[in-house]
Amino acid sequence: MAEKRLDGRIALITGASRGIGRAVALRFAEEGAKLILVARTTGALEEVDDEIQSLTGETSTLVPMDMRDFDAIDKMGGAVYERFGKLDILVGNAGVLGPLSPMGHIKAKDWSQVMDINLTANWRLLRSFDPLLRKSDAGRCLFVTSSVGANPRAYWSSYAVSKAALEMMTKIYALEIADTAIRANLINPGSTRTAMRALAMPGEDPQSLKSPEQITEPFVSLCEVGCRHNGMTMDEHGNVTA
Length: 242
Description:
single chain; alpha/beta; Rossmann fold; seven-stranded parallel beta sheet; 42% helix; globular
């Protein structure tokens, strides 16, 4: 049997019920990780868990939660500590697109929602789980970004701003934990066949895009014990781009 590259690692994945999060959860399960899956909908989480059980015979810890419930994120940190005593892998994947419109036309509530989910929720995850990552022999922290986070694009407004800030947050954290066993990185999955991509590009043929299952390899490599990258951005092909 091939060696499982995440064997026994405790991994928390947000936005785990569909798209990239679901694909990463299934791949991590195949690689031997013990999963904590977070998403808004209980039924969708249970469907992913059923798939994982059929693949591996193992069950996951399911956490139905809205990422804007910041107090719940803090409570989740305490619950994970009580059950596992540490966290080996944190994957911040949950995100929303928000309106694609001129800056001056965005409603305040829409701006706040995008910043809350794409940026502040991930900071709250870091804040809650940093002590648990430090208890791991090789803590790995990975956030999902986008090309528009580094390359300004008209009308991508709040989404692009949130990803630019997420990248800065991750790279600052990477500097702060450089002398520890933790490594913090970003992944830019590129154009992928997801519901968010369909919203952003409604006229695009989804069959022309990569499936989420095709981009899971960089997630595994950045979360392995042997990963030495820190403060880097990796694309879907495994190339370090920044």
